Amino acid sequence: QVQLVESGGGLVQPGGSLRLSCAASGSIFSINVMGWYRQAPGKQRDLVATITSGGGTNYADSVKGRFTISRDNAKNTVYLQMNSLKPEDTAVYYCNGQVLDVNSGKRSNYWGQGTQVTVSS
């Protein structure tokens, strides 16, 4: 099994910052792409940012210049530094990983349980 666990969410004021972390564990051979997605109530789950094992990144237009994704391959951990937060950033943030499982030999997407980010005065 593979598990992804997010942490770092919370309540911040507009203009504030948070850093989210997501640690993957289990029968992992490798993780090609890791990413962050978010979902507000009544809305679709949208891409926030992705990062490859080689460090290539992709960001949603809405977060470019404000958010930075990074990863520690040795720790199978991905981070999301969120600066200049806006109320519209309020959502549950989910970690995603494309994982090659050592035991099964299968490559699958795995999701974390989500962490709440609320931006409000």
Provide structural commentary:
The protein is mainly beta and 121 residues long. The protein has strands at 2-7, 10-12, 18-26, 28-39, 46-52, 57-59, 67-72, 77-82, 91-101, 107-111, 115-119. Strands 2, 4, 5, 6, 9, 10 and 11 form a 7-stranded mixed beta sheet that branches. Strands 1-3-8-7 form a 4-stranded antiparallel beta sheet, with no helix packed on it. 31% of the residues are buried.
- Average pLDDT taken over every residue: 95
Question: Which secondary-structure class do the elements indicate?
Answer: mainly beta
User: What is the ordering of alpha helices and beta strands?
Assistant: EEEEEEEEEEE
Number of beta-strand segments: 11
Uncertain stretches of 5 or more adjacent residues = none
Question: Strand share of the residues?
Answer: over 45%
Categorize the overall geometry: elongated
Biggest sheet record:
7 strands, mixed
Helix content: under 10%
**Number of DSSP helices?**
0
Radius of gyration based on Cα positions:
14 Å
* End-to-end gap: 40 Å
